[in-house]
Each structure stands twice: as structure tokens, then as C-alpha cells.
Amino acid sequence: MVSEPAAEHDDIARAMRAVPRRDFLPRSQRPFAGQDQPLPIGRGQTSSQPTTVAAMLRLLRVPLGARVLDVGAGSGWTTALLAYLTGPQGSVLGVERDSRLSEWGAANLARTGMDWATLEHSAPGVLGKPRENGWDRILVSAAAAALPRTLVDQVGIGGRMVIPVRTTLLLIERLPDGRTRATDHGGYRFVPLIED
């Protein structure tokens, strides 16, 4: 396995320091922000374990200026981390199917001042957010029962998507000829992805 450049790891570590998890947790969970475990954020959802989030971001390899979709944005923490990685030249959209969580997550995100990132309530019956020419990067923070074709179709040429399918973390890459390649990156546990 080829190791990734140290600079990428540094970027992830810097993002984690710049965007503290504590700011995206309910008040009752903030004392536990430094623990490396999932924490409840309400509505049956969790803030993922920091080492898991870091592993997903390393696989995603978010470049400056990327157009990124965050599916299952919840508290807004991953949306904010992605925004930090894209920088102001990029754009990040978080989508969350629970309307109360999406409102809270949007407010958390707004406090970061990274106005190139937004979080919205997902459209009923729509998984992700289709866009012309697809997304450069897609992060999915909930486990699908099977790889959702609708999300794969939203990955642009040269793009990458990291998604848990059942208990396996997959990296989906869109090749220059339009085909996709899926690789397996170990076992993880996530809340289920609800597909309307």
C-alpha cells in the first residue's frame, strides 16, 4: 500500500485543530469532545469518532478549491472540516434529512464564518444533491445497505467518494474514461443511511 504524503496528514490534523468538535456538540456532550468515540447529537444520530473522520478525510484527499458534498451532515462538523480543507476558493454543501438537525447544524456552521460552506435540509426523496458535471468529492457519514447508484452518479470525472456500505468503508473513484473503481478500506460502524 502506498503511503500518502505527510502534508496531507498535516492538513487533516490542522483542520481538526481549527474546527473543534466541541463547537458542534450538544452542551451535555461537550465535556466528552476529546474522547475518541462517537457521541450522541440527538434525533438518533451521532458525531463520528474523530479517528474515523480523519481516516475518511485522508481517503477523500480534498484539494483546495474543490466542490464537495457532505451527505448526512448532522451537526455540521464534517461540513466545516471539509470547508477548511477546500479553502474559500472551494464550495461545500452539507445535506441532512432530519430538519431539526439540519437547522442546528446550519447554525453551528454559520458560526465558523466559512461562508463558502452551507448546510441544508435534503429534498424529500433525493439522496445527495445532483449537480451538473458532478462533485469533486463526496463524503457520506452514514452506512448504506448497498452502494447507492444515485450517489455514485453524482461523482464527477476525477472525483472521489468515501462511503460506508454496511460495515466496510469504500472509496469510489471516477476515472477519466467515466468508469468507476471501488476499493475497500476496512471495517467501521456508522448509523444507517436512510434512503427515501
Automatic annotation (TrEMBL):
InterPro entries linked to this entry: PCMT, SAM-dependent_MTases_sf
Pfam families: PCMT
Annotated segments matching region Disordered: 24-47
Enzyme Commission no: 2.1.1.77
Main localisation: cytoplasm
An annotated Gene Ontology molecular function: protein-L-isoaspartate (D-aspartate) O-methyltransferase activity
Any one GO biological process: methylation
Keyword Transferase: yes
Gene3D superfamilies: Vaccinia Virus protein VP39
Family: Belongs to the methyltransferase superfamily. L-isoaspartyl/D-aspartyl protein methyltransferase family.
Name of this chain's protein: Protein-L-isoaspartate O-methyltransferase
Source organism of this protein record: Promicromonospora sukumoe
